[in-house]
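Troubleshooting: if your tokenizer reports a length mismatch, compare against these two reference records.
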Amino acid sequence: MTQRLNAYAILIVAATVVGVAALPWISFRTIYLGLSWNGFGAENRTPSADEVVDVSPAGPGWFLLAACLIAALAAASTLIARTRVYARPALWVAAGCALIATAIPITVLVNPEWYAGEVMTQIGGTALPLRDFLRVQLVSSAVGLLILLAVLCAITATLTPGRKSDTA
């Protein structure tokens, strides 16, 4: 029962991480005509925004999406009887991927210029600190959710019985 609940929790946390990556990580809406970029590097403009920005961030959020997809597949393998023999190694791989993916939002928090690239130069705001436009609470929540995802995957992997030869 606990294993099933953990699998559902992994699915919920993975979906939440993807949702957080889809929200704007950098937003110039307060000063620059409604421009913002999410964790995937997708630009969001308000109708009043000019077409002067031709650059967008690299979008490292795709690594978060990959880690969440791996975790979701590992969690699904614990729920499907035929794939349970692969669940334990898949959950360990998912835990490792979630921990590695945690480096992305941490790097964005420490060095927002790494994420933004040439965006500040393109909008002419090189004198403005990019950290003022970074949505720190949102990116920090991505860090926490990815750590939670890694912990849930690791706990579920320890609860998942291995192959018959592993237990003998």
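Reference record two:
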Amino acid sequence: MRDTRIAVLLGIAAVALFLPTVAYEFVTDDATYIAENPAVTEGVPFTRYFTDTTTTATEPELRSQSWRPVRTIAFRIVAVVAGIRPSAYHALNFICFGAVTALVYLGLRGFFLSRFGALWSVVFFMLAPVHVEPVLYASSLGDHVSLLFELVSLHLALVSYRRGSGLLAAAASLLLLLSLLAKEMAITAPALLALLVYVERRAATAPLPPLRRAIGVVALQGLACIVFFALRTRVLGGHIGHAALTTTTITQGLMEAPLLVWDYLKIALMPLGHNMAYVLGPVSLASTLLGLTALVGVVLLVAFVSARMAQPAVSVGFAWFVITLLPVLHLVPLAADLADRFAYVPSVGLALCFGAILDFVPRNRRGAPSVLLVALACVALAGSLVERQAWKSDRHLWRHAAEESPASAQAQANLGVILLKEGNFAGALEATERAIALGRQGGQIHYWRGLALAQLERPFEARQAIQRALSLEPIPASSAHANLAQIAVALGERDEAERELAIARARPSNDPTVTIAEARIAELAGHFEESAAIYGCLADRFPSDGKYRYYEALAAKRAGLRERALGAARQCLVLMEGQTQCAALVSEMSFAPR
């Protein structure tokens, strides 16, 4: 009963640790998975979550990479209960993290760790800066749900093995399937269960359950994985990972795997330096052999320490860490090099390993180690407090990632988008060109570069960049052609502008860029009153965006509509307080002759 109370208190502390961040914004892929996803915002028939890949995300590439219906259903439940508010999704992540923290403590105690070892291990698990990403990234709700189901599934499977309960074994298998449907990281659960059963049988002093019972329980867990793969293949196709397996990807993965184990061990332990865009270092045969040799050395050292201490939990914890990393070691194609959220499940193994080592300290000699543990906990807490600042918004997140990983094409590309939105077009151009130089390919990056060039009044280069983007991949074609129409207006090419506008109109879209192109073409023809009317309609469609009122005011001014120009400029100033261009228009039109 005492352990249950401690677990609850640890869970509450984990929630409280992140409560000050509840007002943080949605970031990175939260829009495509949650805020802009009709399956979440509006809902679809229940079976479609399991059969239709379009329910996963609005981004086509992400639909083809993952199938996580339980996560999407969880997103939808939050939307129904609390609306599409970042704070609601953050709050649920905090609660799930608290529940995971509590379960990890109970699991460590169940693995014969002392209260001292289990408590300190979970304190570090809770404070670890590597967990800032999965907790503050709203889209990581699937990671929490998956780990919760996986931990409970393992517990029930072990109980069913000890008691011979077929019902519990079936329940454990069903929970594992739900875990997999939330996140694929749980695919290693059968191997973990086999490891735990093996250790329990080796350490048993009482009569052992029949071996066939152990095999049966593990086989049921394996069956859940087979069912998951069958369903996933039916929905997504034959890819095991995020792309097709080839000789090249397999060879590259085998070379990278030993190095990735070390990278994940590093990011799991380091107090600072975390970001959303890690870059894997140079990979060569020499570096792979060195990494593999070092890994074998650590395995032998862990085995020696575990035998010396007569504590198998040390070896089991390290084995858990390595086994649960297998899905993200590039043995199958993966879209990301490294990510903090991928270390979430493996860090449970590190907690077990650490707790077992702490338990080796005699009770009467724990004073000095406790002082050191307090100091280390303070370092971990400080690291988490610093690292979570980057998750306030996309602007903070990608600026931080670009600073921490300047060689990341992803970080530079996303920084370019942020700078575009902020109106820093020179900075956006620099960031997008840096991303291209770092190897970022595809039409989208050239499209963003073209937008920056257009705003910097370099129309010929902008046109070339956008045309190249259209030739590389199907980016939003209506927006691209609408921007080409605006570039043609800037060059005084009315016929070309109308041709591009016609192409943009032929592709169904609610993108305001098309409407802006219509207004610009009207201005080129000298129809300023018509242009003002078009901008007025845009301002009504997007009442919180002051720039459309500014455009309306400019067009109305050119049309000689003084009162309309003054009214639109004043509304612009209300929406964009302190905006100098709006203020100048208000001043100018206030004193203009009637």
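Descriptive notes for reference record two:
- The first helix runs from residue 2 to 18.
- The CA atoms of residues 9 and 371 lie 22 Å apart.
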